[in-house]
Automatic annotation (TrEMBL):
Residues 14-105 form the Retrotransposon gag domain. Residues 149-184 are annotated as: Disordered. This is Retrotransposon gag domain-containing protein. It comes from the Eukaryota. It comes from Dendrobium nobile. The lineage of its organism: Eukaryota, Viridiplantae, Streptophyta, Embryophyta, Tracheophyta. InterPro entries: Retrotrans_gag_dom. Pfam families: Retrotrans_gag. Signal peptide: none annotated.
Length: 184
């Protein structure tokens, strides 16, 4: 049987089988015998669910993407890349400029401004290198903190210069202020 040539009655009976979730709930909530034709049913359906359709994004969508406070470079880059992939045939130079405008000021941004980024590919390379460096630094910091954490309670460690300085103590012998040279 060809559904295209089917009667309105048959189309209205087959239609709910194609629905799921909210669309199915909406359909079964319609008062019975209030829709005179399938064309009217289709129109009501579109009016009800037009807001749920996916709107194609264009390059202007990217200009609203900014690195949030506390968001790592890696998180920002992943979020930006995900959005950029949804835009067909976007110009790489536009991506470079928009990414840089959304990047929070800081040492990495300063480095990018000092040493000109020539292309989006160059930017990606430098971002990935910075992300790798950040991850290595964080791993080293954690390892360093674990090692130092193990020695905090060790005898004699409380007399270290850094601990004394931290607590405002200075156990160095007191010397009277004297000039380094003697006038003649």
């Amino acid at each position: 049987m060809h559904i295209q040539r089917a009667s309105d009655t048959l189309l209205c009976q087959v239609f709910p089988v194609t629905l799921k979730g909210q669309a199915r709930t909406w359909f079964y909530a319609l008062p019975s015998r209030t829709i005179p034709s399938f064309i009217k049913l289709a129109k009501l359906f579109v009016e009800q669910f037009v807001a749920n359709r996916r709107i194609a994004k264009n390059s202007s969508h990217l200009s609203g993407i900014r690195q949030n406070e506390g968001e790592s470079l890696k998180e920002y880059f992943q979020r930006f890349s995900t959005e950029a992939r949804q835009i067909p045939e976007v110009d790489p130079e536009l991506l470079r400029g928009v990414f840089l405008r959304g990047l929070r000021p800081g040492p990495f941004y300063s480095a990018l401004m000092r040493d000109t980024v020539h292309s989006y590919a160059d930017l990606i390379h430098r971002v990935e290198a910075q992300i790798s460096a950040d991850e290595a630094i964080n791993a080293h910091r954690k390892q360093f903190e674990q090692i130092n954490g193990k020695h905090k309670g060790a005898p004699g460690m409380n007399n270290s210069f850094s601990q004394q300085k931290k607590h405002g103590k200075n156990n160095l012998p007191h010397r009277s202020p004297s000039p380094r040279w003697e006038p003649r």
